Structures are given as structure tokens and as C-alpha cells.
Amino acid sequence: GTGVTTSADLANTGNLVLIKTITLSSNTKPIQFLNSDADVTFDSTYQTYKFIGNVKYENDSRVTYVRVSTDGTNLDTTSGNYRMDQISGKDAAINVTNDGSSSVFQLEGSTTGNATGEYMSFELTLFNNTTFNYPRFICHLFTRRTDGDSELVYRTGRYLVNSPIQGISFFPNSSNNYNTGATISMYGVKS
Fold first, then answer.
1. How far from 84 is each of 101, 102, 149, CA to CA, in Å?
2. In the chain, which residue ranges form alpha helices assigned H by DSSP?
3. Residue 46 in contact with residue 68, Cβ under 8 Å?
């Protein structure tokens, strides 16, 4: 070999198994991982998945939404199926909030800009236990915001359908695109 250890090689030496990485070659949306796509597996092999992403938006003042699929093809847009609780810190202030009824799971607490140095990084853990059902999310997020400030967000969420998830989609709000180079990786977590 070359003596070079890639991040995928490093991840596969421990409890994380790289399933798929999507890096955009043009401005587009969404970035999604569906069981109906090649190289994507949501099944009993893993009860927990991690999604690690770095995205920049085509336009200013955007957030990332998440929707899931229980059949591996169709995304659930039903209002009230997605709920979250959030703690965030921004501009030396702490904010606590929740969303009792939504048709999406939103990652950021505030909008993210698209100027130089403004982007959003996240790690989302999906607990997709096929015995317990009712999937749960935990998301840690750091974003560089439009006004040059940064925001740290810890968000938990739940999907209120008694069925394991078979797909997930990440997309910007207001019909916008992610910029070229935006990337999200999907990992299975070995138990």
C-alpha cells in the first residue's frame, strides 16, 4: 500500500462501517440515502446509523430539513410525525425549544449563510432499533452563521411512526440547493 490511511479505512477499523458517501458534483438537492438505491442498506445488520455532513447552501439564510421513509422509496411528509427538542448556544445566549408537530426534522436552530467560511457541519445519530421501533434521532451541529457568529446546537428528535426507517433525505428549505462539494456520509454502527 501507499501508507496512507483514509478516513473510510479509519472508520472501518472500529465500530463505524462506511456504507456510502455522497459528494455533490453540482448544485443540487436533496442528498438522500434510500434502501431502494444501490449501496444503501437499512436493515437489521445495524440498529444505529451515523450521518456526518458538511454542507454549504446555494443561497443565504437556509436550514437543512430531514424526512424519512419507512418503505425505502417514499418520504413521509405527514404533519405531526416529526418532533424535536433543542438546546442551542449563540451570541452568548442559551436557547431551549421544542417542536410539537412538524412534517420535517430541522437540523439548525437558526439559518446558515453562504458567504466565505459560512457552512453547516453535523453528526446525526439514528437509533433505528427494529425491535423497539419508533426511531429516535440525536444531532450535534455546528454552524457558521450569516452574520459571522457561530451556533452550537444539540437536538434530539423522534419519528412518531411505529416502523423502522428505510431511508433518509437531507434537503435545504425553500426549494434551494446545496453547493457543489457538499458531502454527507452514512455509517452503520456495530453493536
1. 9, 9, 24
2. 7-12
3. no
Residues 190 and 46 sit within 8 Å (Cβ to Cβ): yes
pLDDT digits (tens, 9 = 90+) for 45-91: 898 999 999 999 998 888 899 999 999 999 999 998 998 888 888 77
Rg (CA), the chain: 16
How many CA atoms lie less than 13 Å away from 120 in the CB half-sphere? Answer: 35
Cell numbers of 26, please?
453540482
Residue at grid coordinates 450569516: 146
49 closest CA partner among 35, 63, 36: 35
3-state secondary structure of 52: strand
The overall pTM is greater than 0.70: yes
Q: Under the phi-then-psi rule, with left for phi > 0, alpha for psi from -120 to 50, and beta for the rest, what region is 43?
A: beta
CB 98 within 8 A of CB 113: no
Residue 104 contacts by C-beta under 8 Å, 6 or more apart in sequence? 65, 66, 67, 82
Whose cell is 458517501? That residue is 21
The DSSP string of 1-36 is --SPPPHHHHHHTTTEEEEEEEE-SSSB--EEEETT
Distance CA 12, CA 190 (A): 10
> Strand, helix or coil at 110?
coil
CB 146 within 8 A of CB 113: yes
Per the structure block, which three cell numbers stand in for 181?
A: 462539494
